[in-house]
Amino acid sequence: MMGLFSRKKKEAFVCPMSGIVHPMEEVPDPVFSEKSMGDGFAVELTGRQVQAPLSGTVTAAFPTGHAYGITTIEENKVTGRR
User: Fold this and answer.
1) How far apart are the first and last CA of the chain?
2) Which residue of 14, 44, 63, 75 has the lowest C-beta tally within 10 Å?
3) How far apart are CA 8 and CA 35, in angstroms?
4) Confidence of residue 34 (pLDDT cuts 50, 70, 90)
């Protein structure tokens, strides 16, 4: 009966920005539109604020400010990273 009263914390996601969602195929940069970096979507911002969508550490930040990589706490547990 171990764990009967324990609850695993679930990660909460928030909407990180206001904008219009576009499919990757519409992005003018071929690296993204051809999905070389993987599947996803683009957001045409309508607001001025962007916040992190979940708890984690920024592990990549492009100088142009167009993309960021976030490693979550759960990913760190799996990979053994801190």
Assistant:
1) 31
2) 63
3) 34
4) very high
Neighbours of 32 (CB within 10 A): 19
Tokens standing for residue 10 = 């679930």
How wide is the angle at C-alpha 52 spanned by C-alphas 69 and 77, nearest 5°?
60
Structure tokens at 1: 């009966």
pLDDT surpasses 90 at 24: yes
The Cα–Cα gap between 20 and 59 comes to 26
Model pLDDT for residues 48-76, shown as the tens digit of each residue: 887 777 788 888 888 887 778 888 877 65
Closest CA to 74 of 61, 55, 58: 55
